[in-house]
Amino acid sequence: MLISQTGPARHNRAVILNGDENVVDYARFVFWQIAKNEPERDYDLVFCTPVKGLDARHPHLPEIRNCEVSTKGLEDIPTRPTIPLACHIKVALPEIFRADYKQIVYLDTDVYLRHGKISQLFDLASPDKPVSAVLDGIQWRDRVYEAARRSWTALGIVDTKYFNAGMLVYNVEAYCKADIKSGVVGFAADNGHLFAFTDQDASNGHLKGDWHPLPLEWNWQSSASAFHLIRKYNPKLLHFVGTTKPYISEAPRFSRRFRKSYAAFFNQILQKPFAPIVQPSNTPGKAPKARFTLQKLLVLINKVNPFAYTFLGGMRETITMRRNIDEISRAIRNGTKLWPPDARKRQEPDD
To answer: Strands (DSSP E) along 30-150, which ranges?
Structure first.
């Protein structure tokens, strides 16, 4: 529900980001990049927040429609320390703006526009499917993470394409007519205890593969292997998933190189100091101290390993991912069925 707004819709399409006070500056960074790449736009830039009085507008930024919205009805979607309820507004965007927009591009605040015009996404999206999105980076690999596999198996979404919810294109009327918001929230209410990825699992669990795949270049999700391939595939929109965000102090080397762009934006546009944060920006407090695991040991080793996060350190995985990306991209171009790599490897051993 729309509570207040700083102005009416000016176009029938919009690019929308949402969040709270912890991510508002990173939303401003995304809006700034979009406007810089496409100064003449036929779509609105919108920031949605449940926080009363929070305003993403800034005198050195393009015009932003700032909207306060309610999160009522979204409580059944589970949250995480780094994924507050404000993140789940995306599920309700088509209903909130049904009277204003025909198409909506939703973006997480941790995306980075390398080049290209966001307006291309409106044309690439399906005119029929309620949701168009990019296959999740987990399915660019040969093997699905064990935790994700267990969760997806329990949720009944095995052997189907699974999208990443950091960039979505909504066909607003189709989404509302199918009452997808209610379906997603209902699925979360019944299965939320099984989720590995909160609203992303809820949306995929409800849609079960009934969505339109977009080219991977529009949601290039950060992993060392994927980022080694940036030069080859020249993706348009990077997505710093998890704790790979450049503005986090412990970000890995492959994403940390983008930090200077954020520093320049803070210093020159927002005119405020920039400093890498110790924890993800949307974490309300420090997470409980976790027990030491083998994975944490490997991360610790990689911090001092000169080959970590380099092509030499992940050559085999990078080559495998390149093969899968080529196969997935051909399927998207040709309109053929997308079979996640893991679905073709039933004989694989468990991790």
So the answer is: 44-49, 65-69, 103-107, 111-113, 131-135
Q: Can you give the pTM of this predicted structure? A: 0.88
Domains of the chain, CATH where assigned: 1-351 (3.90.550.10)
Amino acid residing at 284:
P
Residue 312: C-alpha distances to residues 295, 305, 325 (Å): 20, 11, 19
Paired sense of beta strands 212-213 and 163-171, if any: unpaired
What tens digit of pLDDT does each residue of 95-140 get?
999 999 999 999 999 999 999 999 999 999 999 999 999 999 999 9
Closest C-alpha to 258, from 270, 244, 268, 273: 244
Amino acid at 18: N
d(CA 237, CA 239): 7
Q: 334 in helix, strand or coil? A: helix
| 246 vs 264: CA distance, rounded Å | 13
Look at phi and psi of residue 66 and say left if phi exceeds 0, alpha if psi is from -120 to 50, else beta. beta
